[in-house]
Specification:
Keywords: CBS domain. The protein has about 160 residues and is of the alpha/beta class. Helix content is about 40%, strand content about 15%. The strands form 2 sheets. It has a 3-stranded mixed β-sheet. It has a 3-stranded mixed β-sheet with strand order 4-5-6. Helix 8 runs antiparallel to helix 9.
Length: about 160
């Protein structure tokens, strides 16, 4: 068997259920400060937003929360940020604290980034890259959250598979 074939076989053998981990989740009505705290404490690139039955509604990337802390006039021209001193810049971080997770989601009608437990590493990589999502929810046939795969976890798994070359 060639190296490419061996790697393809190993990729088929490793599935989302094997690399998915249990992560904390948030609900739409939760304070965004809670989501930020959970991201920091757990070193997460984002949070999975679930409904009352633990079905994923959305993935809230940390970059979206960060974006809301920066006034829109500064987002369009990063050079303007240099005009703000550190004392006043700290005030920007208080604004997201009054928001809910729902306030941070750009579009609740967008389908959350999910895969089935038997998704391969290549499928996970494709979904993450297409959806620009650093976090993918692994769901069962009833769309109930089983776990999640972070970009870091996927890259580590791909690197381990690649070591067999």
């Amino acid at each position: 068997m060639t190296t490419t074939r061996q790697q393809a076989q190993q990729d088929r053998d490793m599935q989302a259920r094997e690399i998915a981990i249990q992560l904390p989740t948030v609900h739409i009505g939760d304070p965004v400060a809670k989501a930020m705290r959970l991201m920091v404490v757990n070193r997460l690139p984002g949070m999975i937003v679930v409904d009352d039955r633990d079905r994923p509604l959305a993935v809230l990337p940390g970059t979206q929360v960060l974006r809301l802390a920066i006034p829109s006039s500064y987002q369009n021209d990063p050079a303007l940020v240099r005009t703000i001193d550190e004392l006043h810049a700290e005030l920007f971080w208080y604004e997201p604290g009054r928001m809910t997770v729902g306030d941070c989601l750009p579009d609740l009608t967008a389908k959350p980034t999910t895969v089935r437990p038997d998704a391969t590493l290549l499928e996970l990589a494709t979904v993450m890259s297409q959806r620009h999502s650093p976090l993918v929810a692994v769901v069962d046939e009833n769309r109930v959250l089983l776990g999640a795969v972070t970009l870091e976890r996927l890259l580590i798994s791909l690197a381990v598979v690649g070591l067999e070359d």
